[in-house]
Design a protein that fits this description.
Heat Shock Protein 90; Helix Hairpins; binds magnesium ion; elongated; binds adenosine-5'-triphosphate; alpha+beta; 5-stranded mixed sheet
């Protein structure tokens, strides 16, 4: 049986209160569901859309942050993750591009001398080189191209080992002042024979010990010095080597009075295969690997390498070697 409230003869105010409570309850339910929709469902919907965007490869997609949202922390974490994903993806793309450029560089640099060798061998075999003079000239060209190819392959082999961290270093604590002096004296003889004046100023404590791979540090210095000689354009080429102690290692600076490097080229000279002024440098010869190798080796010793230069005046290459090598730094 259905009883109507009026028939219960309840006092009027109880009826009003009862109805008000019912209305309020309905209203609060409505308010709550609106709040839930705006503060929870809508942000979650935006998050779901963002996840779809990311799965479509739109890395870095950001969800609008709203201070009233009940999932603000989740949105902030999502946005951060999205940024991290974009960064990782950009790195991967850059790495892949580098690989492609490297392969293109290797193919180009190997093809040129080999094509030349094949051409001159053919000229000798078919009798185009019909005099002893011509034959000798062609054989010299073949020899220099073969040597270039050999150096390129050696450098490439070393560089790729460094690049994929497959290089086995032989770090030994050595008195770095003596070591550097020995390297410089050895190089001094070689350079002076080629008419290059070399002076040095080593301000390193004789007791200073550093963990170095001697062969590799020799290689760093050689690569820098060979550039200082190769790209010298003055009548009296001069090289100055300075070395000083630093709190956590040493700093070595090698300056020349050569032709210098333009601002545009300067930041790229440590890149693999980069050769400034490629057309004019062709006769000088080189693979564009020397400084890329030096950089990898310096970094393995925990150091950094930088260059400053003034066109027409000269170039200074500065590198550091640290008490903690790269490996020690990474493994604590
Ligand atoms: P490689 O050393 O492999 O035989 P490379 O000398 O061309 O070849 P890097 O030593 O890596 O290669 O040098 C890169 C480029 O930087 C050179 O081609 C040259 O243009 C420029 N460069 C390096 N050192 C000097 C310098 N001291 N003076 C002028 N230019 C330099
Ligand atoms: Mg070089």
């Amino acid at each position: 049986m259905i009883l109507r409230l009026t028939e219960l003869k309840l006092p009027f105010f109880i009826l009003v209160i009862g109805s008000t409570i019912l209305i309020l309850k309905e209203l609060s339910t409505l308010f709550f569901s609106i709040q839930m929709r705006n503060r929870l469902m809508k942000p979650i919907e935006r998050l779901r859309y963002a996840v779809d965007e990311i799965s479509r490869g739109h890395y870095g997609y950001q969800v609008e942050e709203d201070s009233l949202s009940m999932v603000g922390d989740l949105i902030a974490s999502f946005n951060k993750m999205s940024c991290d994903l974009k960064e990782a993806n950009d790195m991967k793309e850059k790495y892949e591009l580098n690989r492609k450029e490297l392969i293109a560089g290797i193919s180009h640099d190997l093809k040129t001398p080999i094509t030349s060798i094949v051409g001159y061998v053919d000229a000798i075999q078919t009798g185009v080189a019909n005099t002893q003079d011509k034959k000798e000239k062609y054989l010299n060209i073949i020899e220099s191209n073969a040597q270039y190819t050999n150096k390129l392959i050696d450098d490439l082999f070393l560089f790729s080992k460094l690049d994929i961290n497959q290089m086995k270093y032989d770090f030994i604590e050595l008195p770095i002042c003596d070591f550097l002096s020995d390297v410089i004296v050895e190089k001094q003889l070689e350079l002076e024979e080629n008419g290059v004046e070399i002076s040095y100023d080593i301000q390193i404590s004789p007791k200073r010990m550093l963990p170095i791979d001697g062969k590799m540090v020799y290689r760093i210095v050689s690569n820098i010095l060979s550039n200082a000689v190769k790209y010298g354009d003055k009548e009296h080429p001069i090289i100055l080597i300075e070395a000083v102690d630093e709190a956590d290692g040493i700093k070595v600076q090698i300056s020349d009075n050569g032709k210098g490097i333009s601002k545009d080229d300067l930041h790229q000279i440590f890149d693999v295969f980069y050769r400034a002024d490629e057309s004019r440098n062709k006769e000088i010869g080189g693979t564009g690997l020397g400084l890329a190798i030096a950089k990898q080796l310096v970094e393995a010793h925990g150091g950094t390498i930088t260059a400053t230069s003034v066109v027409g005046v000269g170039t200074t290459i500065c590198f550091t070697l640290k008490e903690k090598t790269h490996k020690e730094e990474n493994h604590g």
